[in-house]
Amino acid sequence: MMPRKPLTLANSLRLAKVLDIGLSKLGPTSPLWTHVSTVVQGSIGYLDPEYYRRQHSSEKSDVYSFGVVMFEVLCARPLIIQGLSKEKVNLAHWAHLCYLKGTLDEIIDLHLTGQVALMALQKFSEVAEKCVR
Questions:
Q1: Which residues contact 65 (CB under 8 A, 6 or more apart)?
Q2: Are the beta carbons of 64 and 131 closer than 8 angstroms?
Q3: 35-69 per-position pLDDT tens digit
Q4: Buried b or exposed e, range 81-98, using 16+ CB within 10 angstroms
Q5: Which of 34, 69, 102, 109 is such that its CA lies 20 to 30 A from the CA of 127?
Q6: In the chain, what is the straight-line distance between the N-terminal and C-terminal CA atoms, in Å?
């Protein structure tokens, strides 16, 4: 797989812009067609773990990818950082564990503290976690 550009960008004002994360494709709508086989391309970590098991992309794959991007925005760090402990290398995995343990506040970007309402951060976190569940 060739390296790709990051899926999230920020301008000089730190305003985030999300690029295409789409993996699933619309196909024939006939009941005779259950799925379309195609080569999926994407960055490691953004692909739905279910895709690795079944080699089948769906709308749920896009939902997973969106949740990953949400955690990147929330935590202000790249998805994969080599050299960290095994549980922290993949942000989606680590954030999911922190959410389950009730410690997600420990990895949220410090610049968001006091700038965003606590309830908004909690709802954002909840949606992101449900996407990567």
A1: 7, 21, 22, 23, 42, 46, 47, 48
A2: yes
A3: 555 555 666 777 777 766 776 666 777 888 889 99
A4: eeeeeeebebbbbbbbeb
A5: 34
A6: 25
Q: Using alpha carbons only, how large is the chain's radius of gyration in Å? A: 16
pLDDT above 90 covers a percentage of the chain that reads: 27
Neighbours of 101 (CB within 10 A): 9
Of 7-16, 56-65, 86-95, the poorest mean pLDDT is in 7-16
Q: Which residue has the tokens 């389950």?
A: 100
Q: Which residues contact 84 (CB under 8 A, 6 or more apart)?
A: none
Asked if 25 and 57 touch (Cβ cutoff 8 Å), the reply is: yes
- Give how far Cα 90 sits from Cα of 38, 47, 65, 72, 126, Å: 26, 12, 13, 11, 18
Cα dihedral: 133, 126, 86, 18 (round 10): 90
Using the predicted structure, report yes or no on whether residue 14 has a pLDDT greater than 80: no
